[in-house]
Amino acid sequence: MPLKAVLFDFNGVILDDERIHQKIIIEMMDREELNFPLEDIQHHCLGRTDRACFQDLFASQDQSLNQFQLRRLLSMKAKAYRQYLESLDTLPLFDGFVELVEELLAAGLKLAIVSGALRAEIKTVLKKTMLEQAFTITVASEDVKKSKPDPAGYQLAIKRLNRKFSTLDLAPCDCLAIEDSFAGVQAAKLAQIPVVGVAHTFPFHMLQRQANWCVDYLHQIELDRIQSIFDR
User: Is 143 helix (H, G, I), strand (E, B) or coil?
Assistant: First the structure.
């Protein structure tokens, strides 16, 4: 089957902001008098929604977290991250992202974002980069009940693409996911979507063990080669 759609993760694939998220979360946990090494923050939070991140962090230290506290933390995190984005003159996009999007669109492929980020955060970045029209579908944290590695986000993206393009007849095997985290790779594979791991966040040799293909940088994704594999 030919390749029809490419589904991008957001944080760590499009936007080079994982360290910012980690810094904000560590500072917030310090104010809650909870101390976590960076490895724990990465384990519980990379590739996942803020909701799942905070719930797992508190649970890992046997701390209770009611819905009021969780909403407060989510609001604080969203505000801190939004202020950071608004303070930037230039967004920290990963090298090769814009060129890859242009190449994919020129090949007639549909593009979507499947992310644990908030819709407002994704929209802000796409608007600032003038790429709103490139991504016809966005699945954000508000759209699914479970965080990656649950496949629900990817499954919803396929459903929405088929709804928007009635003749597309899109199946998981017609898609390619681009992910930077273990949770993201697992989510794509559980949705039966082939996945390219890009080693922006974890070392190449670690990501390679889980992804179908792995690259160090976005510009190393060879569309012609991948299309030929899908066409077999």
Answer: helix
End-to-end CA distance of the chain: 7
What CA–CA distances, in Å, run from 159 to 3, 133, 172, 195, 219?
A: 16, 19, 10, 18, 29
Of 186, 163, 159, 187, which is closest to residue 171 (Cα–Cα)?
A: 159
Domain boundaries, position 60: 18-86
Q: Are residues 9 and 103 in the same domain?
A: yes
Query: Average pLDDT for residues 185-211, to the nearest whole number?
Result: 96
In the numeric block, the tokens 């992910």 are attached to 179
Tokens 């890859």 correspond to 100
74 and 103 together in one domain:
no
Structure tokens at 91: 């967004």
How sure is the predictor about 156, in pLDDT bands with cuts at 50, 70 and 90? very high
- Residue 24 amino acid letter: I
Total domains in the fold of the chain: 2
Specify the amino acid at residue 202. F
Q: Exposed e or buried b for every residue in 79-106, given b needs 16+ CB within 10 A?
A: ebbeeebeeeeeeebbebbbebbeebee
Domain boundary among 86, 104, 119: 86
Are 128 and 104 a contacting pair, CB within 8 Å?
no
Greatest CA separation for the chain? 55
Tokens 């007639």 belong to which residue?
A: 108
